[in-house]
Design brief:
This protein has about 210 residues and is α+β, with helices and mostly antiparallel strands. The chain has helices at about 1-10, 20-30, 60-65, 110-120, 135-140, 205-210; strands at about 40-45, 65-70, 75-80, 90-95, 100-105, 140-145, 155-165, 180-190, 190-195. It is about 25% helix and about 35% strand.
C-alpha cells in the first residue's frame, strides 16, 4: 500500500497530466497580459487658492505619452512572536507601500509635458518666498490600468495623495540624431487601492484616450 501511495504522489508521466495542454487551455480561457498593454491617468491637484494649478498639456495628450511604468506592490512589516512554544514565528505589525512610482514620458516639441510637471511641483511652494503650501493643495491621484487585446481595462490600481517628487534631468547630445526625447518623473504617494472595470469615474474620457 505504501508503494502505491508513493507512485500516485510522484507519478508525473504524460499519461497522467499534460501541463502544456492545460496551459494552452488556460490561456485560451483566461487570456494573457502583455507588458505594453497599459494606460495611466493623472488627476491634478487644485493648487493654492491664490495660484490655482493649470496644466499646460491637455490631459488626453499627456496620458498617451506614458512609455513605461510599474505597478506598485505592498509589504508587511513583521515582528517576531516569541510568546509561543516551539519555533518562533513572524506576525504582521503593519503595512507599508513602495511610496514612489516612476513613469517615463515621451516629450513634445513645445515641452508642454515638462512644463505641466514643473507647474505641479511649483504648486508645493512659493517660488518667491520659498514658503511651502498645504499638503492637500499639491497632491492629486494616479490611476494605472492593465488592458486586454481589445484595449478593454481589466485591472487597475489607484494611487492616493500623489505629487511629482522628482523630475529627472534629461541629457542632450549632438550625435543622438535618432534618439527620442524621454523624461522620467518620480511620483510620491501614500497608499494604493485596487480598481476594477466598474470603478472608473470617467469612462467616456478613458475610452476616448485609447482611440
Amino acid at each position: 500500500m505504501a508503494n502505491q501511495n508513493l507512485r500516485r504522489t510522484f507519478d508525473v508521466t504524460p499519461s497522467k497530466r499534460n501541463t502544456i495542454v492545460e496551459l494552452r487551455n488556460s490561456i485560451g480561457k483566461e487570456g494573457i497580459v502583455r507588458t505594453n498593454q497599459f494606460v495611466v491617468r493623472l488627476n491634478f491637484p487644485p493648487g493654492p487658492p491664490n495660484r490655482p494649478f493649470r496644466q499646460v498639456m491637455d490631459q488626453q495628450d499627456l496620458l498617451v505619452r506614458a512609455q513605461t511604468v510599474f505597478m506598485p506592490g505592498t509589504n508587511f512589516s513583521t515582528v517576531e512572536d516569541t510568546n509561543i512554544y516551539g519555533p518562533n514565528r513572524n506576525i504582521v505589525s503593519g503595512i507599508t507601500f513602495a511610496n514612489s512610482v516612476g513613469i517615463t514620458f515621451l516629450l513634445d516639441e513645445q515641452f508642454k509635458l515638462k512644463q505641466t510637471f514643473d507647474a505641479w511641483q511649483r504648486a508645493a511652494y512659493d517660488e518667491h518666498t520659498w514658503n511651502l503650501n498645504y499638503y492637500d493643495e499639491y497632491t492629486g491621484f494616479l490611476e494605472i490600468y492593465l488592458l486586454d487585446e481589445q484595449n478593454t481595462r481589466r485591472y487597475g490600481v489607484k494611487l492616493w495623495e500623489v505629487f511629482p517628487k522628482t523630475v529627472n534631468p534629461t541629457s542632450l547630445a549632438y550625435d543622438a540624431n535618432d534618439t527620442l526625447f524621454l523624461t522620467s518623473v518620480g511620483f510620491s504617494f501614500r497608499y494604493w487601492t485596487s480598481l476594477d472595470q466598474s470603478q472608473n469615474p470617467d469612462v467616456s474620457f478613458f475610452d476616448r484616450a485609447l482611440e
